[in-house]
Write a structure and sequence with these properties.
Elements: H1 6-25, H2 27-38, H3 42-70, H4 73-92, H5 96-113, H6 115-125, H7 130-141, H8 144-159, H9 161-183, H10 198-213, H11 216-245, H12 250-272, H13 280-300, H14 305-333, H15 339-368, H16 370-393
Helix pairs in contact: 1-5, 1-7, 1-8, 1-9, 2-3, 3-5, 3-6, 3-10, 3-15, 4-5, 4-9, 6-7, 6-15, 7-12, 7-14, 8-9, 11-15, 11-16, 12-14, 13-14, 13-16, 15-16
């Protein structure tokens, strides 16, 4: 069978732009117009998003197992189709109960269409150079907010928020669904890890998962990514009110935010440009230091505009690199067999923490203000960095020798 080329990779990257843009980044732009028309509170609308993020965390493991055994075509195509249908249902509803039901479904969609499943697909499709392919994919995917935030705003301004949701649904039906439903066809036929039968693939995946649960690196990485994404999520959702509380102007805040996206892309380009590829251990060690370093700038220089922009640049570069490392570190430090199930199991606590952290930060703010919130975020970032360094220092079984066998 002919190995998949770059066409599939770039198509999947385009689908990531559509999925991230329409199912994740667009949400914040609908909050205000929905509140104006429907009279819902900010906690009502954001509670639905948190519920969806929680659901996406819980389905990461079964979706990863599915892709290990059967490939990504069915689950990713179904995610795009279901997502389009749910956006249309969202557009038609005025019921808070239906809105929450929509976000239960969109939680499934997030788990089926974003980076976690596509990393498994890319690792299966390009087993010998998955690092560079994941880097290239996230390089394009990093433009999702750059494309979809202004596009969604244009849709809302010109069409109203309900019709804007229909327009976003159409982008999934016209772009993401054909890519997932058609171009992934070859990847699903006969490509079973270590054998030609579903039973053999299931046995290999189960054995790989059992070994992972006994492997210290699995648990240390799970702690690291849980701490990192809890910290990252809390900072992301509280940065604007934090800076506003400090008296920073809205234009300056928007300008600082505008630095984050390009900085993520710069970090990914730097990895892609390394001759002979990059080491997940080295790249990850540098990336996890960026978050506590950037938070330290916010603490040490609360009124400095220059340091705010330095924070945004360091924060963006680190997250851009770590997104790639998140997709490559498991096969690099452990093994490729059962990657989808292992990655999904590792993602579950970090996705749950990502959903809960903004609420937890709000409770801390209520008790002590944003100064205490920042110190808590710094503590979480340091835990993430220390545990990642520990995981990459652990004596590990080489990926090439860690071959699973049927029991």
């Amino acid at each position: 069978m002919k190995r998949p080329g770059w066409l599939l990779l770039w198509a999947l990257a385009l689908a990531q732009v559509v999925s991230w843009g329409s199912f994740y980044y667009a949400f914040s732009l609908f909050v205000v117009p929905m509140e104006r028309e429907l009279g819902w509170s900010r906690s009502d609308t954001n509670g639905a998003l948190s519920l969806g993020l929680l659901i996406s965390g819980f389905v990461a493991y079964p979706i990863g197992k599915w892709i290990d055994r059967r490939g990504g075509r069915a689950v990713m195509a179904a995610g795009s189709a279901l997502g389009a249908a749910l956006l249309c249902l969202w557009a038609a509803t005025s019921s808070i109960a239906v809105f929450y039901a929509v976000w239960v479904g969109l939680g499934l969609v997030l788990g089926a269409t974003l980076y976690e499943p596509v990393f498994v697909v890319v690792t299966r499709s390009y087993p010998h150079n998955f690092r560079n392919r994941i880097t290239a994919l996230t390089l394009v995917g990093g433009f999702a907010s750059t494309v979809y935030i202004p596009l969604t705003k244009l849709f809302i301004d010109q069409l109203g928020w309900r019709q804007a949701l229909i327009a976003l649904a159409l982008t999934n039906l016209l772009i993401a669904l054909p890519i997932h439903g058609l171009l992934l066809r070859d990847q699903d036929h006969g490509r079973r890890t270590g054998g030609g039968s579903t039973a053999a693939a299931k046995a290999i995946e189960q054995d790989a998962m059992r070994r992972a649960l006994r492997h210290p690196v699995f648990w240390i990485l799970a702690v690291s990514f849980t701490a990192y994404y809890a910290t990252f999520s809390a900072l992301t959702f509280h940065l604007i009110p934090l800076l506003t509380e400090r008296g920073i102007s809205a234009d300056t805040i928007v300008g600082a935010y505008a630095v984050v996206g390009p900085s993520q892309v710069v970090g990914r380009i730097a990895l892609l440009a390394i001759p002979g590829g990059f080491s997940s251990s080295v790249a990850g060690r540098l990336a996890v230091l960026a978050l506590p370093g950037s938070v330290a700038l916010l603490i040490a220089f609360p009124q400095s505009i220059a340091m705010l922009f330095a924070f945004a640049a360091i924060y963006g570069v680190g997250n851009g690199i770590l997104t790639i490392v998140r997709g490559t570190v498991v096969p690099d430090l452990m093994w490729r067999e059962g990657y989808g199930a292992i990655n999904g199991a590792m993602a579950l606590p970090s996705n749950v923490a990502k959903a809960a952290a903004p609420f937890g930060a709000a409770l801390i703010w209520t008790a002590g203000g944003y100064a205490i919130v920042l110190w808590a975020i710094l503590a979480g970032a340091l835990i993430a960095a220390a545990t990642f360094w520990l995981a990459t220092s652990w004596h590990r079984e080489p990926a090439q020798d860690a071959r699973a066998s049927s029991p």
